[in-house]
Design a protein that fits this description.
two-stranded antiparallel ribbon; Cytochrome Bc1 Complex, Chain D, domain 2; 12 helices
């Protein structure tokens, strides 16, 4: 076979290299240099487990009163929160802290404001047994589920055995929560290359958000949720809320008032803001964060620009078909809402 001349070989390598580079650039994520990345849709590998978890999520019989479900404090019609400063628990008890959104919570480094649950599975068991929330016990919740034939059948179908414990319950709820993601926010579309997805003001707000240092804590796909930070780095934060933050978990007083950085995804839906719910509006939250975390006083226009950007982070909300819950049997213990 006739050999190509050196010049032809060089030209061929140049063309192939150019093609390879073009392909590489085309395949690279748009705006990869940005500190924020688009939300990815998770793949559901166990649909029956997710469906079981959805039923448990909406089932108020997991509470002592038979009135409070997971969805009560993390309402999927309201951004995965309840829009209250603190949630309402058993016998109308006032909760100790603001209810964080459950949307995109699978992206968090840990669960709860103080990170006391390492993952969604561990978190799911907490409210059921908390006397100030659902006020049941794990044993009573499991007994209730075992008394309902349809639940017993579904648990066996999903887990492949007759053993029904709180471990299976929390595993199913966590599987459902992992599907609660919100892709396709307008800002995600901009990140992927659609320059018309956000307005000039919204882009201005994003540049200010980056330039002011907000992205030091609010970064990645979830714009937060991946670290614990002190509330009031520059200026002390004043509140009458008794929550101690991370120190209540670690016992390290140096971590007092350190809280998990909240996600900013869907933030326009999850008011009021902060662990104590003290900020009613995004404008108030931006003003406070600028002052106590960054030592910066935003002008009215700067504040409005950042708020405009934050509203581009609202993604597609989970489309949930309400489940038909299995009926109680004669053996199922009846709720005690007034005792």
């Amino acid at each position: 076979m006739k050999q190509k001349s050196p010049s032809l070989r060089h030209a061929a390598r140049f063309v192939l290299g150019a093609v390879s580079m073009a392909a590489l650039l085309a395949a690279a994520p748009a705006r990869a240099q940005e500190p924020v990345q688009p939300i990815a849709v998770p793949k559901v590998t166990e649909p029956a487990k997710v469906e079981l978890g959805k039923k448990l999520w909406f089932d108020p019989r997991l509470s002592r009163s038979g009135f409070i479900s997971c969805n009560s404090c993390h309402n999927l019609s309201m951004g995965g929160s309840d829009n209250l400063k603190t949630s309402i628990g058993d016998k109308w008890q006032k909760g100790p802290i603001n209810s964080p959104t459950v949307l995109n919570s699978s992206l968090n480094v840990a669960q709860f404001w103080d990170g006391r649950a390492k993952d969604l599975k561990e978190q799911a068991g907490g409210p059921i047994a908390n006397p100030g929330e659902m006020a049941f016990s794990h044993d009573l919740a499991v007994d209730m589920l075992r008394s309902i034939p349809q639940y017993v059948h579904e648990f066996k179908k999903v887990f492949g055995h007759d053993k029904l414990t709180i471990d299976e319950v929390t595993s199913a709820i966590a599987a459902f929560e992992e599907t609660l993601v919100t892709p396709n926010a307008r800002f995600d579309k901009w990140l992927k290359g659609d320059k018309k997805a956000i307005t000039a003001q919204e882009l201005r707000g994003y540049e200010l958000f980056k330039g002011s240092g907000c992205v030091a804590c609010h970064n990645g796909p979830n714009l937060g949720g991946t670290s614990f930070q002190k509330m009031g780095l520059v200026e002390a934060y004043k509140t009458d809320n008794p929550a101690e933050g991370r120190s209540a978990v670690t016992g390290n007083d140096a971590e007092r008032f350190n809280f998990k950085v909240p996600t900013l995804r869907n933030v326009e839906l999850t008011y009021p803001y902060f662990h104590d719910g003290a900020a009613d509006t995004l404008a108030q939250a931006v003003d406070t964060m600028g002052r106590i975390q960054l030592g910066k006083k935003f002008t009215d226009q700067e504040n409005a620009d950042i708020v405009a950007f934050l509203k581009t982070l609202t993604g597609d909300q989970p489309q949930i078909a309400m489940p038909i819950l299995p009926p109680s049997s004669d053996k199922t213990k009846r709720p005690q809402p007034f005792d």
